[in-house]
Prior knowledge:
Blueprint (H helix, E strand, L loop, with lengths): L1 E3 L5 E4 L6 E3 L14 E7 L14 H10 L4 E3 L5 E3 L2 E8 L2 E6 L13 H11 L13 E8 L2 E6 L6 H4 L8 H6 L15 H4 L7 E7 L3 E6 L11 E8 L3 H9 L5 E2 L7 H6 L3 E16 L20 H9 L3 H8 L4 E3 L23 H10 L6 E8 L6 H13 L3 E8 L1 H9 L5 E7 L5 H8 L19 H12 L3 H18 L2 E14 L2 E2 L14 E2 L1
Parallel strand pairs: 4-13, 4-14, 17-18, 17-19
Antiparallel strand pairs: 1-2, 2-3, 5-6, 7-8, 8-10, 9-10, 11-12, 12-13, 14-20, 15-19, 15-20, 16-20, 21-22
Helix pairs in contact: 8-10, 14-15
Amino acid sequence: MIRAFPGGVPTVVHSKTSAWVPVVFAVVFAALPAHAKTFKWASASDIPTWDIHSQNNALANGVHATVYESLFYYNAKFDLEPLLATGWQQVSPTQVRIKLRKGVKFHDGSAFNADDAVFSINRAMEKTSNYGVFTQGIDKVVKVDDETIDIITRGPNPVLLRQLTELRMMDKEWAEKNKSTSPKDIKTKEENYAHRHANGTGPFMLKSWDPDVKLVLEKNPAWWGKSNGNVTEIVYTPIKAEATRVAALLSGEVDLVLDPSPADLPKLRAAANLKVLDGAENRTMFLGMDQFRDELPGSNIKGKNPLKDVRVRKALYQAIDIQTIHRVTMRGLSQVTGTLIAPQVNGWTRKADARWPYSPDDARKLLAEAGYANGFEVDFACPNNRYINDEEICQAITAMWARIGVKAKLRTLPLVTYFPMLQRFEPSIYMLGWGVPTFDALYSLQSLVRSVGAQGDGNYNIGRYSNPQMDALVERIKKEVDQGNRNALIEQALLLSHVDVSHIPLHNQVIPWAMKKNVEVAHRADNRLDMRTVRID
């Protein structure tokens, strides 16, 4: 049963205990302060699309959340809150009933209802969607009435509500009218209407978007909620060059830079009119390796793939001096890691976080044992405007591998072309940074080490690592509801990834935000700006 207390605070009757459980809701803030402002911010790359079910990209997800809303979302403390939902009930182990918020309008004035919610979740489940990891376990979505939906799962799903935080709602009629019922396929250059246009329910509306130049959002005067921020216009400028981004902040051209270079931080911290907020992100940087193709394109090794040999993968791992990268390249702004998830993510353990030791001598021995005493040539692809010092990290690793005879042919690409290239399984070795919107290890394990399949299985397993033992563990983790048992399974999976060297973990990002002193914003571990809370005094 779902009920709202007087005053609109939603509550839930849990099916097992029949006890009233309040659903925390803190999105409705104090009344909008006077003296509204334009907020100008910048980072290295642009969002790839406005189609909310096309490309699962962290920067885009954060920007999209300002215009499109999901049924549930996180507050600044990462407590789960209802947004376009008002409450939920676990009707049975495989049936969740969700009550929808009344009176919500899309930006074009049409009403949000159950038809839109059913359509949006189904749209995220289509083949061209990159959001299958957030629909994993869902069998079907059923309209109960205009304000209620049921989500039927294939088995118990302990993280369903957390998955729903990234499934934003689109107007069914708008999508049909504009021939955008299916998500844009990121592997192709074909566009749909939703790629460049938006119609959400959120506090801001898309005013204009000139890709790689400028994005402008304006306040939605008919938003159902209230904000404690005073921003009425948002201007986002992608600025690839680090020096140019910093100059824009120092000159006052922008109010905030999301990703200042570690090398520039002393200067920014010393500036009288600026401040820097630091915090650990729930994003792990790692390298992936092609373990699928029988021959690597562009390699001097013909007829076989060196990366299929665990000894070669381990050699590449042990040749990386991660402490030097931490100290020199990242200037201390990283957390060295030995696993694929950060400490903020459920399932992380110290045991799983242990690294293979840095040892060029051991690396050379492993290569020799594998039959590559003279090394080999290999393609190495990295982004150059997505992560903190991404290109510099890859340059350092290329030099380290050269010392053991591995000649990595480094190529760096901007985000807009890098991620589609990954989805086409092109690179032999690649860099990826993986944040965890659900704050649960299943999101990483299913996406990165589960064999490629349906509903998000292996959706970013670009190297196509595959181990039946790993697949079985991930399938058990998906449905295990006992937290102790579930975390033990997660640790087993992380340790198996370590032994197999499915990937080469590097570090967890530490993210500094640099801004003018008159900007008030909550620093978040998901590296997102919650525009409902931004104030400029």
